[in-house]
Amino acid sequence: MGPRQLDLAQAPPISVPLRFFLTAPLFAIxxxxxxxxxxxxxxxxxxxxxxxAATHLLALGCLSMTMAGAxxxxxPVLAGAPIARPRMIAGIVHPALTLGSxxxxxxxxxxxxxxxxxAAVLLGVAFAVLIAAVVHAMLRARAKDxxxxxxxxxxxxxxxxxxxxxxxxxxxxxxxxxxxxxxxxLHPAWALFGWVGLLIAxxxxxxxxxxxxxxxxPSWLVRRFGFAVLGGLLxxxxxxxxxxxxxxxxxxxxxxxxxxxxALVTLRLQRRRRRRRIDVNVLFxxxxxxxxxxxxxxxxxxxxxxLPARAVLVVGVLxxxxxxxxxxxxxxxxxVPFIAWFHLYTLAGASPGMPNVKDYLTESRQRAxxxxxxxxxxxxxxxxxxxxxxxxxxxxxxxxxxxAWQANLVAIVRVYRQRARALASxxxxxx
Length: 431
What we know:
By secondary structure, the protein is an all-alpha fold. The chain has one domain (about 15-345, about 355-415): Cytochrome c oxidase-like, subunit I domain (Cytochrome C Oxidase, Chain A). The chain has twelve helices and no strands. The chain is globular, with a radius of gyration of 21 Å. The two termini are about 40 Å apart. The mean pLDDT is about 85.
């Protein structure tokens, strides 16, 4: 795949995706602060208030924030489906998602029902508007290709995730007679393996060959992966609700194998890259794929119920911080400079002094942040075994990594703004 396959003319204003991308690391910093404050106590159970707060700061405020910004950018560019009034949509989704994520984390920490209600309203608005805008754009798309199908499946998984989360909220606030234990398993599974996993896979199918110069993903995987994942999640959900453990275990194992296969294919493609030099983007993806395999296998094992409840935390750390955050982190180091370069190019073309994609952020800064991130993942896994010893050290490492990530993204935007201002001031003089 080459740049000619991107419909760059449909790209939204640069402020639309950037507001989401620049906000995401702030929530990772906040999650690290929760871990630092509460220490090893929050690793006792995934249902600890601090654990739930930190998890949702990462899952909603960091990952879903990035996914929302990515959708605003990739739906027009990759699928050729421009989102109507992107500034207005972003102006609704971004503040609602930001405030809703913060209120939900505060609600978990304080146990305040009013905050749960306020968070539910804000998050409901954010996701309803996002889903409606994306689906409306996709229905109007000229081409119904594999990218469009993959995005439809990811949005369907997001819808199920939101409904399951709403069910958990109703149970907590109003005492609704809902199967809380089952929902508490289904909600994160649909969020991680459905919404986040399918969207990352859809984006990876396009951006990995483009940015990493690999061969294309095999057609058998591209065509069947999303449908197979959703099918596995549906079977697992029904089996859990109907109390048929054998079918549930088989479905969980199948889901795990699907993501293991996707990760192994991605790693194999990276070994066949046309460019032999290993840059930071490849390092993030290799780390993310290895940890995705570990998370998938941990999920399949935990789903059988043979491990203690605390062991389920391993799945969360490996899937959220290890796999998803590694991939998102690495992708933003390619996506943000690329859209900055593209918007400058539309202003002035290949004018003298125009920075290329690699000029926006030095390789050394990216490698330093990768090292911090990898160390934080290792320490967070260690904190599951030795929480009293490693929890606050892991939190400090993770916070340092998130701060460096935020600083790097801001540095990219600063280069863009400086050059854009220079171009704007030069145009009257040239006229």
